[in-house]
Structures are given as C-alpha cells and as structure tokens.
Amino acid sequence: YSRMFDGVAKFVGEATHPDQVPELLARAWAAMLTGVPGPAGIRTAFLPKATRGGKVVVLLALHSGDEKSLFGKDTIGAATASMLSRGTVRLSREELAAAFEKLQASWSVGGGAEGVTVRLETTRANLPAAMALAEEVLRTPRFDAGEFEQMKTAWVSGIESSRTDPQALVIQRLGLHANRYPKGDVRHVSTFEEGLADIASLK
C-alpha cells in the first residue's frame, strides 16, 4: 500500500490485526480534516448539506488481504461477515437491533473474505452513538453458536431453492463459464454442490 499510494495520498495505513483498525480510521479521519493538501495537491472538505430530518448516510468499506493470503478462506470469510449482524459480546441479536432502532438508525453489514462493508443511515444528532454501536459490531462480535447454526441452515435452504430457480441457474452457468480460478481462490465460482460442502465443513 505504501509503495502504491504514498505519492498521492494524504495518509496511508495498513492494519495487520483487527484491533488496529479503529486507530487507523481515527488517524485517516484527522488527516482528512486538516485541509492540508496531500502529495498530489488534493484537498478534502466536508460540506454541510440540508437533508430532510437531518439524515446522514455512512458507507464504510474495510478491505483485507490478497488472493494469496485469502486462499481457502472464502466460505469462512463470508460466514464471519454474516455473523457480525447477529449480536455483540455485550448485546444479543435482538438487543442490538433495538439499540439501533432507538437511535433511529437503519443499518446493514456484510461482505466476505475480501472485506466488510457497513451501511448506516441515521440522524445527525444520533450519528456519534450510531457509529460507536457500529464499531462495537465490528470489534466485538458475539459469534453465538445458536445463531451460527441458524445462519448455516438459512444458507443451505437458499442454495437448495436456487437449484430450481431459473434465474439462479443462469447466473451460475454464466459464472462457471467465465471461471478461470481454482477452488480456494476467493474469485472462484462455486457450484451448488461445492457451496453445500463448504457450508457443511464450517465448525
């Protein structure tokens, strides 16, 4: 990252552990707000915009790894991302949903081995608290065993339904036709059978 972006970016950071992400985000945020030009002469600014009800939308994308470091981790990565919305160490799935609702916040989190994306929509007044709650989701997921089994069951049900869905069959056929990557590569397109086998291997 440094070799590629140091010449054009105001701040470049790479996390080698999840615990480093909040600090890196804080440093990147501070660098943006300084208004000092980066190496490429780019200035950044936040411009207020009137919105109905003071609505704020945040989209956060966290990318991880490359094709080598992520080899063989596609399914576990997708499972990990899927589990993030199912509670934190402090809050159950239901309590977490209630906490976001209290903040008038709609939210979603998802992704896979290549990274996680969080979308948050709330009011300006509730943004700091909603962001803190989103940070809790990312930093201290619960990984409840019961929720894990429910997720696997839902995945299997979805694949089984897709086997007889014409649109899903066409999409998979097109994906397999263009597939150039071996199984284990995060870009590999799996068959329904491979997907079911991968889910069954999750522990």
Short description:
The protein has 203 residues and is of the alpha+beta class.
Structural write-up:
The protein has eight helices and three strands. It has helices at 2-5, 21-33, 74-83, 93-102, 127-139, 145-162, 166-178, 192-201; strands at 55-63, 106-112, 115-123. It has a three-stranded antiparallel β-sheet with strand order 1-3-2. The protein is globular and about 50 Å long.
Based on CA inertia axes, which overall geometry fits? globular
Output the number of helix runs: 8
Distance between the termini: 33 Å
Largest sheet, in brief, is: 3 strands, antiparallel
**Share of residues in helices:** 40-55%
Mean pLDDT: 85
Percentage beta strand: 5-15%
H/E series: HHEHHEEHHHH
Supply database-style keywords.
203 residues, 45% helix, 12% strand
Record the SSE blueprint.
Elements: H1 2-5, H2 21-33, E1 55-63, H3 74-83, H4 93-102, E2 106-112, E3 115-123, H5 127-139, H6 145-162, H7 166-178, H8 192-201
Helix pairs in contact: 6-8
